[in-house]
Amino acid sequence: ETSSTTLALLLYELALNPDMQQRLREEIIEAVGQHDGKVTYECINSMPYMKQVISETLRKYPVLPNLQREALADYVVPGHPKYVIEKGATVFISVMGIHHNPDIYPDPQRFDPERFSPEALKTRDTINWL
């Protein structure tokens, strides 16, 4: 079950990073307090650090290591006019390769939810997180 696995990996990373665990705990306590002690959709959406922690967990441990797509039209690879992905060809996209590319995510093995802060998101193309 992918959700249970993702949650286990998130808890593992928080166990290794008590400062992040404490920051998230404080955010949860505050958010639940502002929503009459109820964990609702609105309550969860009011936790930006929680979203960052989940996004970083999925970056480091993607549910699928790669994606498979079919080209809908011929596609000339930019900068390489001799290379054409022909219509109907199967294309594999390495999610692990993108998420662990040090040019996109410096020190990719380090767990760092700040990679998904609003400021950090502005510096990266949205395609770099699948």
UniProtKB/TrEMBL annotation:
Cofactor(s), by name: heme
Name the UniProt record assigns to this protein: Cytochrome P450 monooxygenase
InterPro entries xref list: Cyt_P450 (IPR001128), Cyt_P450_E_grp-I (IPR002401), Cyt_P450_sf (IPR036396), Insect_CytP450_Detox (IPR050476)
GO MF entries: heme binding; iron ion binding; monooxygenase activity; oxidoreductase activity, acting on paired donors, with incorporation or reduction of molecular oxygen
Superkingdom per UniProt: Eukaryota
Membrane topology: Peripheral membrane protein
Keywords assigned: Endoplasmic reticulum, Heme, Iron, Membrane, Metal-binding, Microsome, Monooxygenase, Oxidoreductase
Matches recorded under Pfam families: p450
Record lineage: Eukaryota, Metazoa, Ecdysozoa, Arthropoda, Hexapoda
Family designation: Belongs to the cytochrome P450 family.
Compartments reported by the entry: Endoplasmic reticulum membrane; Microsome membrane
Any single Gene Ontology cellular-component annotation: endoplasmic reticulum membrane
